[in-house]
Amino acid sequence: MSKEDRAPASDAPTPRPEGFRRVAQALAERGHPHAPLWLDASARTSQEAADALGVVVGQIAKSVIFRRKADGAAVLVVTSGDRRVDEKKVEAQVGPVGRADAEFVKATTGFSIGGVAPLAHTSPPVTLIDRELLRFAEIWAAAGHPNGVFRLTPAQLQALTGAPVADVVQA
After folding, report:
1. Which end of the chain is less congested by CB atoms within 10 angstroms, N or C?
2. Residues in CB range of 88: below 8 A, 6 or more apart
3. What is the bridge-based pairing of β-strands 139-142 and 60-68?
4. pTM to 2 decimal places
5. SS3 content of the chain, % helix, strand, coil (to 5)
6. 164: buried, middle or exposed (CB in 10 Å: 19+, 13-18, 0-12)?
7. Which of the four pLDDT bands, split at 50, 70 and 90, describes residue 4?
């Protein structure tokens, strides 16, 4: 029996969390070539994800949620992990925004902070993609849980979300 065939007792199959399953299903339905991966350790931050995947932090497509002041809509900015979102630039695209707390993020996306995927939300957010992600041929995004990630290209991110690419980060 090979090492791959033997699983320690702690590796017994366990059902994945609902958010992870929702992202996996959405990716499969859209014919995305890469199923999400389940990491052994949580990757709540861009640096943790980059370290776990062996990539540079800029390749992590981190999700930042804001609350639009005019209507309370969730605004998702998918940005490069080595950049900081510039709220004024976001506001120029979508109108005034405020910070979103963990309860708002969970209620509007169906995901907890640290695992917000760019797709498969329970309520579709207004979405913007950071143009800085275009620096990379391959990027990684959260897959509905802090332990879940999936591989894609910036073009696939745009196709999966239908979101525009914009200048939304600090200089």
Report:
1. N
2. none
3. parallel
4. 0.89
5. 35, 25, 45
6. exposed
7. very low
User: What single-letter amino acid sits at 166?
Assistant: A
Per this entry, what is the length of the chain?
A: 171
Burial class (CB in 10 A: 0-12, 13-18, 19+), 72: exposed
User: How many Å apart are CA 93 and CA 106, to the nearest integer?
Assistant: 23
DSSP H or E stretch at residue 63 = strand 60-68
Q: Is the dihedral of CA 120, 126, 129, 130 positive or negative?
A: negative
The pLDDT of residue 31:
96
Q: Which two tokens stand for residue 58?
A: 């800029």
Contacts of 145 (CB under 8 A, 6+ apart): 16, 17, 19, 20, 111, 112, 115
Residue 158 scores a pLDDT above 90 = yes
